[in-house]
Amino acid sequence: MARLKQNMDTPLDKRIEYATWPETVAYFSTASMDARLVGRELKEAYQHSFREYLDRWTPLDPDDQPPPLNEDPGLTDYQLDRLDDLRFGMKKDRDKYFIENHYDDWDVTGVPKSF
């Protein structure tokens, strides 16, 4: 649903650069299942992403949620840039998967605007 909304909300002449917040939360949810990967940076990026998801995709106010959801990690510019790099890479991988697995099967006549 988030991808559909992202496509509908993006003007036809504008490229979609980043994965949606729900996709980012799903990525961190999976990554957080391996305790070896969970450090402060991953925890804070996950927390920030979840707050963005709550704020943008649900009627819930992140500040009204119980701890630790209501805690804003206050990411630095460096951390926000790394999170943007991750979301950009996720979107790029999503596009690559589409091209390799579905593009020819759907007999698409033009390149989707998200590319």
Report what the structure shows.
The chain is mainly alpha-helical. The protein has a domain at 17-89. It has four helices and no strands. It has helices at residues 2-9, 21-31, 40-57, 77-101. The longest helix has 25 residues, at 77-101. The two termini are 18 Å apart.
In summary, what is this structure?
The chain has 115 residues and is an all-alpha fold. Helix content is 54%, strand content 0%.
Can you tag this structure with a few keywords?
single chain; 115 residues; 0% strand; 54% helix; mainly alpha; globular
How is this fold's topology laid out?
Elements: H1 2-9, H2 21-31, H3 40-57, H4 77-101
The biggest beta sheet reads:
none
What structural class should be given to the helix and strand makeup?
A: mainly alpha
Q: What is the N-to-C order of secondary-structure elements (H for helix, E for strand)? A: HHHH
Number of separate strands: 0
What is the strand content? Answer: under 5%
Distance between the termini: 18 Å
The residue ranges in which pLDDT falls below 50 over 5 or more consecutive positions are none
Q: How much is the average pLDDT?
A: 86
Helical coverage, percent range? 40-55%
Taken from the alpha-carbon principal axes, the silhouette is: globular
Report the C-alpha radius of gyration, rounded: 16 Å
| Total count of helical runs of at least 4 residues | 4
